[in-house]
Automatic annotation (TrEMBL):
Key words, A-Z: Acyltransferase, Transferase
Organism: Streptomyces parvus
BP term (GO), one: response to antibiotic
InterPro entries linked to this entry: Amioglycoside_AcTrfase, Antibiotic_NAT-like
Domain of life: Bacteria
Family: Belongs to the antibiotic N-acetyltransferase family.
Molecular function terms from GO: N-acetyltransferase activity
Record's protein name: AAC(3) family N-acetyltransferase
Length: 126
């Protein structure tokens, strides 16, 4: 995801809901806010043609890197809320491709917005 940003890439949600914007996991990893959740897991990788098991430590992208319950209305997905806020702020474009409601985002501004959104809300008192 960082390479996508570095190369000036874009993300197209082609008929997909806002909660599927995987790019926001990069924003979560970069955001500095309390309570960030991590997981440790093992996964096989190839090293010089040989399969080895390696241990990785990363943000929890399954259960969520943060507890958004005090900043996101109950029953709503945090990524969907962030994507709506992004569009409201003029980041990204909406349109129809075929019969699909779609949204297009430049990756860099989308990640920057996501980091700011997370930090502003999760670092705020209360």
């Amino acid at each position: 995801l960082a390479r996508l940003v570095a190369l000036g890439g874009r993300v197209l949600l082609l008929g997909a809901p806002g909660e599927t914007m995987t790019l926001l996991h990069l924003a979560e990893s970069l955001a500095r806010a309390p309570g960030k959740r991590f997981v440790t897991y093992e996964q096989p990788v190839r090293v010089d043609g040989v399969r080895e098991w390696r241990t990785f430590h990363d943000i929890d992208s399954t259960d969520g890197a943060f507890d958004y319950s005090r900043v996101v209305p109950e029953g709503q997905d945090p990524f969907a809320v962030i994507v709506r806020a992004m569009l409201d702020a003029g980041i990204g474009r909406t349109g129809t491709v075929g019969a699909a409601d779609s949204r297009l985002f430049d990756a860099g501004p989308a990640v920057d917005f996501g980091v700011r959104w997370i930090e502003e809300r999760l670092n705020a008192p209360g």
